[in-house]
Amino acid sequence: MATIYDVSVLAGVSLATVSRVMNNNTKVSDKTKQKVLDAMASLGYKPNTIAQSLASNCSNSVGVLVSQLDGPFYGPMMTQIETSLRVENKHVIIAAGHSDEVQEKEGVDFLISRGCDALILDVEAVSDEYLITLSNGDTPIVLINRYIEAIKERCVYLENEQGGYMATDYMLSLGHKNIAYISGPMYKLDARDRLRGHQRALAEHNVLFDPELWFEGNFREFGGIDAMQHLLTLNKPISAVVCASDQMASGAISVCLEHGIRVPEDISFIGYDNIPFPTYISPKLNTISNPIHEMGKMAALWVLKEVYKDKKVSVESCFSPQLFIRGSACPPK
Amino acid sequence: MATIYDVSVLAGVSLATVSRVMNNNTKVSDKTKQKVLDAMASLGYKPNTIAQSLASNCSNSVGVLVSQLDGPFYGPMMTQIETSLRVENKHVIIAAGHSDEVQEKEGVDFLISRGCDALILDVEAVSDEYLITLSNGDTPIVLINRYIEAIKERCVYLENEQGGYMATDYMLSLGHKNIAYISGPMYKLDARDRLRGHQRALAEHNVLFDPELWFEGNFREFGGIDAMQHLLTLNKPISAVVCASDQMASGAISVCLEHGIRVPEDISFIGYDNIPFPTYISPKLNTISNPIHEMGKMAALWVLKEVYKDKKVSVESCFSPQLFIRGSACPPK
DNA sequence: CTGTTAGCGCGTTCAT
DNA sequence: ATGAACGCGCTAACAG
């Protein structure tokens, strides 16, 4: 591999001059610049990014820690992050936290030790205090999907309570009264927020929240399956089910169909997240959008602006959910 | 940040000794080692990986280029790669190729310029020749999902032809004769291989391949939707549909259900890939497994063995598909 | 077993 | 505008 030294010899200039044309932050006369450029081209010179990092104390890498790399969310998010960052020649290093406090912290340490210039975190097991302390460290962080008052300028999040409200409000406006709710696990903030929204909608319509009609799921398909099986054993009238995730809604619907219960004729459904898959199956799932890809992009822009001092980007941190009406709900009989 | 120098001073030894205990490849007396360890601990010393990389000419990073970061495949694959590599303290840098030749090449260049020690590639737009040439370069590469004879020891792949055969053979064994086939795009090798397997199965059962019953899809849900809508306009008897991907199968099934066609009673279906989602909906999709996560893991192990000279791993490069029977097929009426 | 010394490839003062 | 020299933090001979 050709180095800056080879280029300097061929161009008949000093090392420093070559470095200058590379970073073109200092004035270099046009003709020496051209000589250097020619030399670089004829040698097929590529800068050694490792050496650049060491000398400049900037690795041009940003670490991304998500709870899981698979599933319907993180893919789109990673896509946006990678795309937004690569155009600025930054690279992304990934790590998975697996929703486990120890692993999430290990992931953070790992990424920091890797010399990342910034961290984009989608974590759920670590405490607010940990994150606040972390944000005072040397490596800047942005949080996706989490709102912490003390460091709100580093948070990119969705108004989950509002989304939960919208889902249930929609069912109520259709005329439903007997509404079951399948929530996410209560240790997750977004699950709690969505549930709160659900309860607020019920209250506003003077419908009592029946704890028996609430099942704590896990956001995954089989959580929805378990939930629906349980709800069916209750022998209570249920005309609509609001699910805190599309995955749970899909699982729950499959249980109904297998029991000969028609959707939406017998029971209406609405999910949350607006993941792609359920829009292609039958019935097409109504849902509340969770613009996870937008949030990924925004987090990347935050890094570009705050860490790499890119002037032209502007960031927006709070996202509003949106209702998508398709074919999985109708008025009660 | 404390450096190796600070540690050496505090421990009263030389720089080299500190370096030795870090890499513990040379013998160091137990008590000096302990002194160094204590000094490191009390300083909270963390090695600077950038400097290590520069000095050792090894970045401990491996680049992963996939066509897309989202969708049901690459998530599980990335998970395995990340997990396998992280335990060995290697980090993964990601890039997306978007199934486009230019972008795939740019991605490769990007990762190489980032000093990756090795590349794991899941590419489909670049030519075999390009990859063969690339494999002769300085950065070792492994290919996932692609078989190239000249560099087969660098390929981790699935026997797609066999899988295609199995899917159709299964339908034939159920008694189906009027079998439609929804393929992937013909410019992709795996799509062609799966189709070949389909044709071989038909031939073995003396069933003629009817080109009219073959629709070239795109592996995605809407490809299956388009395909099924087209097949239905044919007014030909069709009792079974073999799809080259679960996503297309799901799209196709949704079209049937909307037309009041029952699955599997009226038309049987089988997909390919064994992605999670369709196992949670109704009807549960029969399919051929595509162990993409296993392949990801194997690629990571290949890198560990061939690049980082890890002795204990053994790699296997050829994967066999497997038939999964669930609820989307039955004998014809 | 341990210390000395030279790089790794590049950025960045200082001079000039 | 350009060059010389030093330093980033660490590894790897080479001595001893």
Count of discrete alpha- or pi-helical segments spanning 4 or more residues of chain A: 12
- Bulk shape of chain A: elongated
Arithmetic mean of pLDDT of chain A: 94
User: How much strand content do the residues of chain A show?
Assistant: 5-15%
Text of the CATH class of the largest domain in chain A: Alpha Beta
Biggest interface, CB < 8 A: A-B, 52 and 52 residues
Keywords:
homodimer, alpha/beta, 434 Repressor (Amino-terminal Domain), Rossmann fold, six-stranded parallel beta sheet, DNA-binding, transcription regulation (chains A, B), LacI/GalR-like_sensor (chains A, B), DNA-binding (chains A, B)
In words, what does this structure look like?
2 copies of one chain form a homodimer. Chain A has helices at residues 4-11, 15-23, 30-43, 49-56, 71-86, 101-113, 128-135, 160-173, 189-204, 221-233, 246-258, 292-306; strands spanning 61-66, 91-96, 118-121, 141-144, 155-158, 179-183, 214-216, 240-243, 268-270, 287-288, 318-319, 323-324. By secondary structure, chain A is of the alpha/beta class. The first copy, chain A, folds into 3 domains: 4-56, lambda repressor-like DNA-binding domains (434 Repressor (Amino-terminal Domain), Orthogonal Bundle), CATH 1.10.260; 61-158 and 292-319, Response regulator (Rossmann fold, 3-Layer(aba) Sandwich), CATH 3.40.50.2300; 160-290, Response regulator (Rossmann fold, 3-Layer(aba) Sandwich), CATH 3.40.50.2300. Chain A is built from 12 helices and 12 strands. The first copy, chain A, has a 6-stranded parallel β-sheet, with helices on both faces. Chain A has a 4-stranded parallel β-sheet with strand order 7-6-8-9, with helices on both faces. At the A-B interface, helix 4, helix 5, strand 2, helix 10 and helix 11 of A face helix 4, helix 5, strand 2, helix 10 and helix 11 of B. Strand 2 (91-96) of chain A pairs antiparallel with strand 2 (91-96) of chain B, so a sheet runs across the interface. Chain B binds a DNA duplex (16 and 16 nucleotides) through helix 2 and helix 4.
